Structure prediction request, 364 residues.
Amino acid sequence: MLFLVIDMAERENKDRHLSLDEIEEMEQKEIEESAKKEKKIRFNLFNRFQNRDGKGVDPDEVKIADDPKLVNFFKLVGRKINQLLSVNLFIIFGNFPIFFLLLALTRYFSIHTTAPIYTAYAPLYGIMKFGESSPAIASLWTVFSRRTDISIPSVVDWILIGLGLLVIFTFGPVRVGVTYILRNMFRGEPIFMWHDFWYAIKRNLKQALIYGVMDVIIIFLIVWDIVFFNLNYNYSMLMSIFFFMSLFLALLYFLMRTYVYLMLVTFDLSIPKLLKNGLLFSVLGVKRNLMFVLGTVILALLEYFLMLVYVPLAVIIPFVILPSLILMMGVYAAYPKIKEIMIDPYYEEHPQEKEEEGEEPADV
Prediction:
């Protein structure tokens, strides 16, 4: 009986009407809590990538994916310019170890000293100090005693270089993340920058790391060959042939790697198959590939022209849009051919299946 009375008292206490002071106090608490939440959201650095709603998908964007002509590329870039700027930030800051390497190249922490320009400096110095001086020796000393400034790498420089070489481990995952975003951008799918970037990396991390390391090493070896054979170009006919072969190999791999990264985020293929298919696509898509190469050359010449005219602007452009624009051209050139040969035939044979990422529709 006692418990029943207590229970009824508690119910009456809950059901009673609140006073005006209590209601105002509760409303004030709700306003303060809401203001705190808004403040947290306002100062979230990655809020634009996570919490903001997009503008939606323009119905005309699908036509660009179905009809990827040259004119439509400029339409796509115009529509997605803001997203391309964001992609460029992912490329630059995702490969942050490169900044350590650039800081080492400034030689700010190096040991600065001077050294003689000519090898004749040492014997002339000995003659001037311990031998008999003459007008001829003095004249030679005037010519061959000139010195130049040199920089010797310090311990800090070697540490910065070591940190900069860590880019070999960030290059592949970052490239996979931005390739996934650019592919969805071309297909007219909704883009959630921060989420899509990390989703692609987590989903393909193993292959991204392995091929990213391979990619950096291959690029380094190709550039090394071009420089070496160029320095020995007139030494022999064989060296000249090797120089042009290294240029052709650089062009072929430049096209091939674009297809490799696209297939890596689209299909479930092993790295040997990715390389084989990338090599085949670099030949099968020759028309679109040539346009991609032409566009890259034009952008490179514009950057070179800016370096001659106004260096600050030339330095800023790569940090703003240049890398993402080149990658967008690669996706625009390569994905239609992949869709034509690998994706469309698969869904013609399996019309009941929906297109899902991670499947292996076909192997060229």
